[in-house]
Amino acid sequence: MSGRGGGAGQRLAARMVPDGWEPPQYARVKPRLLAPLAGEVVEIGPGAGINLGYYGPGVRWTGVEPNPHLHERIRRGAARAGLSARLIPGRAERIDAADSSVDAVVGTLVLCSVADADRVLAEVLRVLRPGGRYVFLEHVAAPPATRTRRAQDVLSPVLRRLPGGCRYNRETGAAIARAGFGAVEHDGFDLPVSFGLELPHIAGTAVK
Ligand SMILES: C[S@@+](CC[C@H](N)C(=O)[O-])C[C@H]1O[C@@H](n2cnc3c(N)ncnc32)[C@H](O)[C@@H]1O
């Protein structure tokens, strides 16, 4: 994963990844996005497996999670959810799956962490079958010259050096829009964070 610190950094990053509580704004949108998925589903950057409980029983789930310190938590979560789960330890910039072989790719709060979001989105398109869907929930850069964007621009160089390597001001919505999907639909919401700031998010689907 990106972010500094090698093995120790990954261990620390793994401790910071939640597997239980999440903001109600996330819990509100995820059932609509994740419950209808079926067949071969690849989740990129699943963290500790916080989304596993949202999938239906017919899903064959593969996680692409580069932080090995999260794998045991994912396996336990998959067993609790009654899902057949497979883990790939690589990065989403190069997904170990054949072209057009997957019904859905899921990523929540992950494009802020990857080294190359355009490359990851190209891989998502490659592995999806025609008509397959990319399901996403991401925080995004606020519009330029807003108070939130100024804070994101200041915090981003600091946060990307911490374990987890989050790019707070990444223009992820624009990256998804230009990636080459047939149809992209998403809703937006703001999540209150510290210092009176509200972090803009998008949640939706893009169809190949
Ligand atoms: C902020 S956490 C989000 C975890 C989970 N998806 C969630 O919604 O809570 C970001 C996750 O992306 C993973 N990650 C970082 N770089 C990655 C990459 N290049 N490919 C795949 N996953 C990556 C991290 O290891 C971490 O599990």
From TrEMBL:
Q: Which residues form the Methyltransferase type domain?
A: 42-136
Alphabetized UniProt keyword annotations: Methyltransferase, Transferase
GO molecular function annotation:
S-adenosylmethionine-dependent methyltransferase activity
Q: Does the keyword Electron transport apply?
A: no
A single Gene Ontology biological process assigned to it is: methylation
What SUPFAM superfamilies is this protein classified in?
S-adenosyl-L-methionine-dependent methyltransferases
Recorded hits in InterPro entries, A to Z, give: Methyltransf_11, SAM-dependent_MTases_sf, Thiol_S-MT
Q: Name one Pfam family in it.
A: Methyltransf_11
- Keyword set includes Methyltransferase: yes
Which superkingdom heads the taxonomic lineage of this protein's source?
A: Bacteria
Protein known as: Methyltransferase domain-containing protein
Give the organism the record lists.
Streptomonospora mangrovi
